[in-house]
């Protein structure tokens, strides 16, 4: 008789790995949501800055104001991009910390389940080896009796 393919130890290990994967995926989705919000804010900031620069350009009354407004048009979003980079670094730092903490929280259970599964495999292999040796012994005895 063959042992069941999915034993309680294997099922436990699978369940723990699914929980770990689900939690890590949740952290990744939270990071993606934060990144999406950050990208939307960058877009809003750039549109606002370009709009303000365009208004200054249109409201220019002399050549110096026009030159200043025009040069601002050439490098739009410098402040917005610097702010974006700072927030992006903070977002990824939090994401890294969150994922590391999540993994560290789950690792003891993963190790225990893997150890239990390995012990079960060893026990099953020992039992099957003993049965095979017993069958081989019976076969050899029966073979010797025939001769």
TrEMBL record:
Q: Which domain of life is it from?
A: Bacteria
**Domain (Phasin): residue spans on this chain:** 22-106
Record-linked Pfam families: Phasin_2
Name of the protein described by the UniProt record: Phasin domain-containing protein
């Amino acid at each position: 008789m063959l042992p069941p393919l999915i034993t309680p130890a294997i099922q436990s290990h699978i369940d723990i790995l699914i929980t770990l994967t689900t939690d890590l995926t949740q952290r990744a989705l939270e990071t993606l949501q934060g990144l999406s919000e950050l990208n939307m804010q960058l877009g809003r900031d750039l549109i606002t800055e370009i709009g303000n620069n365009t208004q200054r350009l249109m409201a220019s009354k002399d050549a110096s104001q026009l030159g200043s407004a025009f040069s601002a048009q050439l490098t739009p979003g410098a402040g917005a991009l610097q702010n974006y980079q700072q927030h992006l670094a903070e977002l990824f730092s939090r994401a890294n910390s969150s994922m590391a903490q999540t993994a560290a929280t789950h690792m003891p259970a993963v190790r225990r389940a893997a150890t239990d599964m390995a012990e079960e495999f060893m026990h099953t292999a020992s039992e099957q080896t003993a049965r095979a040796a017993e069958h081989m012994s019976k076969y050899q005895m029966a073979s010797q009796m025939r001769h």
